[in-house]
Amino acid sequence: MPAYAYALIAVGVLVWFYPFVRAHRGTTPASVVNSRSRWGVLLQFMAFTLLWQGHFWARSLPVWRATISVALFILAAVLSWTSSRALAGQLRVDAALGAEHRLVRSGPYAVVRNPIYTSMLLVLCATAIIVTGWKLFAAALVLFIAGTEIRVRTEERLLASRFGEEFESYKRDVSAYLPFLY
Fold first, then answer.
1. In 3D, which of 121, 180, 106 has the Cα closest to residue 152?
2. CB atoms within 10 A of CB 64
3. Contacts of 88 (CB under 8 A, 6+ apart)
4. pLDDT digit string, tens, across residues 121-144
5. Residue 97 main-chain phi, psi, to 5 deg
6. Per-residue pLDDT for 145 more than 70?
7. Cα dihedral sign for 171, 173, 174, 175?
8. Which of 58, 91, 105, 135 could serve as a FRET partner for 172 with CA atoms 20 to 30 Å apart?
9. Mean pLDDT confidence for 15-34
């Protein structure tokens, strides 16, 4: 794999990840935490790790794959920057709610309920296009979706308990990960 491929992944991941670091700094302590979402984090981490298990060092990188990867990284970065800004002090790794928590329905949250997970999926795909074959990507995708489902269901139970019908209405109106797929 050419050196610029590693640089493309490193820059893509850093640009995508940076707004979460900034947004997390302003987060107040949680009043309700459900640590079961950590199992989902583990599965998502395993999915990203699985991508690197093939013979990626011997892969070439045609221009079309690099172009698609760059486009996916850009879209992922746009979602991460706008999502973290929309959450403004509510961003947490665990499924948790703070005393001041509000139901965010603006920005990318008006299009999908979980734009951060959508952005993570885009990063997974952008990385896979560069480093892995279809079989490992398919396995990584299964792990990622399983982990994401654990996290989403845990988080949405908390949101439903706090916001009741307002959240249920939002859930009916806005798809979970991909626009227009309910």
1. 121
2. 9
3. 23, 26
4. 999 999 999 999 899 999 999 999
5. -130, 140
6. yes
7. positive
8. 91
9. 81
User: What is the per-residue DSSP string for 163-182?
Assistant: HTHHHHHHHHHSBSSSTT--
Per the structure block, which two tokens stand in for 112? 């999908």
pLDDT at residue 64 is higher than 90: yes
Q: Distance from first CA to last CA of the chain, Å, rounded? A: 38
Q: Using alpha carbons only, how large is the chain's radius of gyration in Å?
A: 17
Q: Give me the phi and psi of 175, to 5 degrees please.
A: -70, 160
- Angstrom distance (rounded) from CA 48 to CA 141: 9
Per-residue confidence band for 108, with pLDDT thresholds at 50, 70 and 90 = very high
**Alpha-carbon distance 83 to 109, whole Å?**
7
The model's pTM is 0.91
Residue-wise over 105-142: b if at least 16 C-beta within 10 A, else e? Answer: eebbbeebbbbbbbbbbbbbbbbbbbbbeeebbebbbe
How many Å apart are CA 101 and CA 104, to the nearest integer? 9
pLDDT at 181: 67
By three-state DSSP, how is residue 96 classified? strand
